[in-house]
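Narrative of accomplishments. A recurring question from our advisory board has been how the design workflow behaves on a single, concrete structure rather than in aggregate. To address it, we present the structure tokens for one chain from the evaluation set, followed by the sequence designed for it. No filtering or post-editing was applied between the two.
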């Protein structure tokens, strides 16, 4: 399957393994990952955030309950909410999550946004688990037609050492562990190049008290709700 589907499947497998109840996808674009995750029975709260309202609206109605959901109500409650806003800004609606995913997001951030990102995601949102994926620039010579970046909107693409040192810094600063993996293995003989997509999986070291950790912190709302579905 194409790499973007492998990335969604990677998250779905993680969800099936760790059974998070509250999951947020930052930079959710057309909500494809959220749509896949709504079928995971363990999830009770699903949230999406993107800075581009139009891309979120394209297919968001797929997140609405279907007639069958009303005819055969399930035991679980599920609330799906989409927010328009930036990962460079804090909003209390992102507190108390078990898993936050950032798939192919960071390379789209301006330098000032990227600088704020660790404090917002790890420091403020502080979910039990964070997954971040980004292109591995060392793989680019193996991709036909890629000159500088894989996509014109990318602000940077990191090699393995750059991504890993950034991720290790964030982890140690905010008390997380981090493990590296990836998708899209290099051809035999070129193993040093690493995966086409590099992935960091972070886990919060300090225990979950059951209560959102930062609920005390007074924070203004900075995101705008553009969609909400209650199952
Ligand atoms: N995560 C999706 C996926 O894997 O298919 C989409 C990734 S797309 C390449 C990057 C997304 O990040 C875009 O939808 C873009 O609008 C969004 N984005 C860029 N800067 C952002 C920011 N500061 N805050 C939130 N989303 C942002």
């Amino acid at each position: 399957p194409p790499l973007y589907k492998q990335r969604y499947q990677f998250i779905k497998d993680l969800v099936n393994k760790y059974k998070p109840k509250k999951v947020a996808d930052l930079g959710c674009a057309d909500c494809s990952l959220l749509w896949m995750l709504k079928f995971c029975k363990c999830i009770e709260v699903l949230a999406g955030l993107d800075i581009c309202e139009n891309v979120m609206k394209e297919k968001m109605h797929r997140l609405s309950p279907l007639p069958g959901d009303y005819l055969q109500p399930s035991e679980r409650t599920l609330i799906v909410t989409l927010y328009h806003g930036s990962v460079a800004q804090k909003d209390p609606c992102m507190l108390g999550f078990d898993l936050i995913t950032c798939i192919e997001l960071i390379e789209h951030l301006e330098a000032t946004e990227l600088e704020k990102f660790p404090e917002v995601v790890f420091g403020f949102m502080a979910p039990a688990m964070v997954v971040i994926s980004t292109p591995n620039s060392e793989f680019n010579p193996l991709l036909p037609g890629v000159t500088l970046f894989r996509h014109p909107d990318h602000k940077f693409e990191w090699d393995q050492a750059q991504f890993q040192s950034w991720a290790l810094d964030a982890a140690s600063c905010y008390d997380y562990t981090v493990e590296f993996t990836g998708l899209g293995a290099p051809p035999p003989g070129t193993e040093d190049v690493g995966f086409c997509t590099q992935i960091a999986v972070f886990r919060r070291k300090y225990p979950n008290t059951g209560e959102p950790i930062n609920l005390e912190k007074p924070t203004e709302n900075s995101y705008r709700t553009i969609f909400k579905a209650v199952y």
